[in-house]
Amino acid sequence: MRCAWLGCLVWGSLLIAGGPQSAINVNTRYTVESVELSGAEESRISAGLRREMARLRGEKLNPSLLEDLARRIRRELQVRAVTHLVLRGDTPEHVKVVFEVKGRPRSYEISVPTFLYHAKQGWSAAVEGTIQVSEHRLTAGVVSDGDALAERYAGVNARYENRRLGGSERVGLRLLAESYHQQWNRATRLAAPEAIEYTSPIYRVRQNIEPTITIALGGPFMLSVGAGFQRMEPDYPAGPGTESANALSAALRVHKRIETSGAGRHDLNGGYGLRAATRVLDSDYVYNRHHMEMRYVYENGRHAVVEHAMAGAIGGRAPLFERFVLGTSSTLRGWNKFDLDPLGGDRMVHNTVEYRYRMLQAFYDTGAVWSQGQPAVARHAVGVGLRQNNFSLAVAFPLRDSRVEPVFILGMNY
Question: What is the largest CA-CA distance in the chain?
Fold first, then answer.
């Protein structure tokens, strides 16, 4: 009964949230003649976002894309609202698009990037406050996350960002600092002593300092290079002393959006990331962690198809926070991650296929997580739910021979 009431409440809130957008009914046969930003200087938004606005010229009008760009402009400018106006163009069958900025830019913002409930893992949440002065952006937050890793980590984090380092729009700097206390599932505690040869003991405190430089290579490519300095304190005073996992990191990402006249929109995000811990950085662990990911979205009117694939591998002895986990709110939904592998694995493959119609969604997940020398066992899950932007209410069913036990997942996770 409680779940039924919760479902009705969320359904109603989603309908209310979707009301204004459902009123937009612009004929997509029109071609965009020009794009303008009103109420703020265009130079205040990132070069990448300006390029995406410029790409609208000469393309067929796509209301959903205009809404997405308006949200991103509002987020970058930190203003109260950004709306888009569609005006008659100077040429027949052409229109002008104006993004209208409302309110003065805010120097601060409070956001909730994570707010999740998972029937097997409980609640996860994060709250952040951001102060922005010119090109400098400082964010501090608190988090309790039992979803992403084998551990539940709770604590504080802070990061400094400069998207135009040295005045260049192609180079950015980010400095991240984190300090977390850990809670461990009983299954993980029982399995950890037997796995000491290929991963770390459990720890009670984990701290991290991570500087990163981001470079826009041109076109859809973005390169990030940096280092992470992780420090772990033992769970028991009689255990091993404080250990470090210091690693160099590099990531190459690509984002490509293609508009086709009358045939919908294609959006591709992909990337490859590497973390390599080495004795050169005075690390107690030596390993390399590879992670590849691809997400493709095709939208046509009220319909959307999402394909999301990822894979990973670890060589060497990596600590627990680096190991791959499936059975979360976004991977193998419906499975319990501690039943799959309470320590996570050093090998992982996963794929999601999802269909959306308006707020309705249906998905099929398949994947495997294992360690070197063990067999890879593929698992499968299906589910249905409601989605509005990043907020989702879903029920997922793990496909197995024994009883069917649905798992409810509610919330948002950016």
Answer: 79
Residue 22 burial (C-beta neighbours within 10 Å; 0-12, 13-18, 19+): exposed
Q: Rounded distance, CA 376 to CA 128, Å? A: 38
> How distant is the alpha carbon of residue 99 from its chain centre?
26
* E-strand stretches of 260-317: 265-277, 287-300, 303-316
Distance CA 288, CA 276 (A): 4
> Integer distance in angstroms from the first to the last C-alpha of the chain?
29
- Count each helix (H run) and each strand (E run) in the chain, helices first: 5, 19
Closest CA relative to residue 137, chosen from 76, 179, 180, 79: 76
Q: φ and ψ at 284, to 5 degrees? A: -80, -15
pTM of the model: 0.79
Strands of the 81-88 sheet, one edge to the other: 31-38, 94-102, 81-88
Could you give the CA distance from residue 314 to residue 345 in angstroms, rounded to a whole number?
9
| Segment 92-102, tens digit of pLDDT | 889 999 999 88
Does the pLDDT at position 271 exceed 60?
Answer: yes
- Integer angstrom CA distances of residue 307 from 200, 294, 302, 352, 362: 34, 8, 17, 6, 12
pLDDT of residue 386: 94
Distance separating alpha carbons of residues 64 and 62, to the nearest angstrom: 6
pLDDT in tens, 161-173: 998 888 787 899 9
CA–CA separation, 356 and 354 (whole Å): 7
DSSP output for 127-158: EEEEEEETTEEEEEEEEEESSSSSSEEEEEEE
- How many CB atoms neighbour CB 179 within 10 A? 15
pLDDT at 321 > cutoff 70: yes
Can you tell me the distance from the alpha carbon of 127 to that of 142, in angstroms, rounded to the nearest whole number?
A: 6
pLDDT at 219: 79
Using the Cα atoms of residue 29, residue 35, residue 38 and residue 43 in order, give the sign of their dihedral. Answer: positive
Comparing C-alpha atoms, which of 46, 26, 74, 412 is closest to residue 255?
46
Half-sphere exposure of residue 379: CA atoms within 13 angstroms, side-chain side:
21
Mean pLDDT on 181-194: 95
What per-residue confidence (pLDDT) applies to 42? Answer: 75
DSSP 61: P
Tens-place pLDDT, residues 342-355 = 999 999 999 999 99
- Comparing CA positions, the residue from 87, 97, 90, 37 lying closest to residue 62 is 97
Say which amino acid occupies 346: D
Distances (CA, A) of 235 to 102, 189, 382: 51, 10, 37
